[in-house]
Amino acid sequence: MTFNLRLIPLLPFLGAAILMLFGRKWSRDTVVAVAAGAIAGSCLVAFDAFFTALPLAEPNGLHDTVGTWISAGPLKIDLAFRLDGLSGLLCLIITFIGFLIHIYSSGYMEHDPDYPRFFAYLNLFCGSMLVLVLGDSLPVMFIGWEGVGLCSYLLIGFWYTETANADAGKKAFIVNRIGDLGFLIGMFLLYQFAGSLNISEITTVASTGSALMQPLWGSTVAFWAALFLFVGATGKSAQIPLYIWLPDAMAGPTPVSALIHAATMVTAGVYMVARMHAVYLLAPAALAIVTAIGALTALFAAVIGFAQNDFKKVLAYSTVSQLGFMFVGVGTGNFEGGIFHLYTHAFFKAGLFLCAGSVMHAMSGSGDIRIMGGLRKKLPWTHAVFFVCWLAICGIVFSGFLSKDSIIAGAMSTEHLGDWAWVGQAAGYVLSLAALGTAFYMSRLYFLVFTGETRASDEIKHHIHESPGSMVGPLVVLAIGAALAGFTGLPGGLFEHPTWNLLNDELSPVLGPEMEVSRLTEVGVMVGATLFALLGIGVAWVFYGGGYREPSRKFAAAVPKLVKLVQDKFRIDELYQFLFVRPIKRIGNFIYFFVDRILIDKIMVGVPVALVDLFGRLSRLVQGSGDGQRYMAIFALGAAVMVFLGTQPDLFGSLKVSVTGRTVEVDARRGGKPGGRALEYSFDFDGDGKPEVEGASSTARHDYASPGSYTVHVRIKDPRWGTSNSLEQKVEVP
Amino acid sequence: MPTTYYLILSFFLFLIGTAGVLLRRNALIVLMGIELQLNGGNLALIAFARELGDLKGHVLAFLIIALAAAEAAVGLAILVGLFRGRQTVNLDEITLMKR
Q1: Taking CB atoms and an 8 Å limit, are B97 and A623 in contact across chains?
Q2: Which of A412, A435, A447, A680 has the maximum number of C-beta atoms within 10 A of its C-beta?
Q3: Residue A672 confidence (pLDDT) above 60
Q4: Are B22 and A629 in contact (CB < 8 Å)?
Q5: pTM across the whole model
Q6: Are A326 and A301 in contact (CB under 8 A)?
Q7: What residues form DSSP beta bridges with A219?
Q8: Partner B, chain A 451-510, Cβ-Cβ below 8 Å
């Protein structure tokens, strides 16, 4: 069924274009009205499309083909969009949370002079993200993929006057480029072996044919394609080893961190793996790698989060860790679990980030949690929202509880990994530990910021105030979402596959039936995870309840080096600096000094310059006055002579004469080459003044009656100019 | 009107321009001479285009008009620069090429 899906990304793009062109001249209210209006319109269309597509329950959903984008030989790519349960859900998340964040930003960015630019980028981002999820083929998806990368770069470096911010933007872009190369290679492999770049066609090929099971480089095509696509996902979704850009990306404005670096863009990798699930299911080894990377990232980032002292940095590592959870979900073939967590995470993580913005707004812009504390009474609304989102991310009752359990239970009982089933089980245990860690660092954050006494200076304390309604409103909506979103996807294993499992209804036509999990596993995981979460919260209370308590000080004093190491993020950035950045810089320097300075500047530029200089010096010796006009006159004279010579027919011509018996053949064409000019030739062989042969042909033959010595006269005429020229040659006729 | 008339006019335009370029000593007038030369060329192009019924001549003429505009801008800028540096635009006094 077709539907006007192009409107969904088009509206934000239009908003961005209008704001870039006219935004500077408009008032702030107009700018917000245009930006939020564009995304609200897009949101309404998305809801309309979603509820049109849902009852159809056909796996292909809604279509919209705008036109042919590339047509080259057998390669044909349409600019086409598709909305099914999976992309529809993502569309709702992007447009709805995007809308809330536009509203929030109108308050948060109120004092920023670059208001229109901010909203233009934000709209541009939403449009690109919608192209990414709605794209019907990998190249269209890739446009969105690159578009969101660009917007991420632009928004991280939004306050570009500070070098650190601009550097963070560049870092994000460059690290993402590494992943993008993997995405491209995966795309090329799929095109070569599946013969199409259209996602539904690839899915069909993957589920029916054996095209993707051909051996390649010691494994199968499906394995390499899946692995290379996953390299792209590690870049965009900040997984080991390419996660390093995301914490730095917090240099951007907080609403950007909430929308791009928590709720939407960074989940693109998870979405892509789920979108290409048919390919991944053919390659259990690739799935096992996805699972392993996800589990390691989840635990590793959670541990780094223990010791960070910046509000947004804690949340950034938390995002990396939660993305790891999602990758374990999709990596164990539990695609619905992964998408479920993506969906609940979008609500509570956006909520947490917007709370961070609200708190920093109140703390005169500082994000240092060491000087916060006791904000519960001063920021009641922010506190209430943070409290709900905190419980949600810790996995207690609210939405994070169900989605996290779905992933862990799925990992424990997966059947998609084949020989690597143990990786899934190990990932389940690692994730349980990571969930414990999550509860610890999030509770540490909560206790240090909201309980006890404020540790800030009196000046900052004096300014603490609750944020305006435009900021609190979206917060409350997100808190409701964080609390309730999880209940749309109750686990089938526990509740006997209820008919009202909305999430399953919309995703199963696309991603296949929900993973079978035994009731025992389900209950075990739920109880275990809840106990772990409570343990994490308990430990955090002992250490940080109501401020820095005695145990936390003792711990820091007992193992200062360990604390410092975690605080320095295990010095991974420094390791990359040493392993990659410095060698590349050295190579660059070498090339600069050798190729640029010596080879190009000295040899390839310097030598010709010296030659020109030499000839210039030499010709200056015979130069007269140095008066330009004299040179001009000589030049004009020369030009005149050349024009004159050009009008002369065959000025330097000569005759080619060949004698065979008494027959003489004459060719008057210069050098034997065909000329472009129409000339008339007249041949006089006997020297009586009357031509024997006339015409446009440059050759002529003549039979002499008796032997002797003759002179051949040839007259060449150019009828255009009326000029003529005579040639003559003696011939001996035997 | 026969094309020859246009060509004769174009020839004289070009000749006057050339004379200006070669004989006048004021650089500004020389620039104007160059402009005349270009327009002489333009007229010839248009005349031939009309004679042959071929639009390429028009295209070239437009190209030359754009070129002439750029040339005038750059030429005047050079003149201003020259005048600032040497307080003169008399070509007899500007003999930089012999140093």
Answers
A1: yes
A2: A435
A3: no
A4: yes
A5: 0.73
A6: no
A7: A216
A8: none
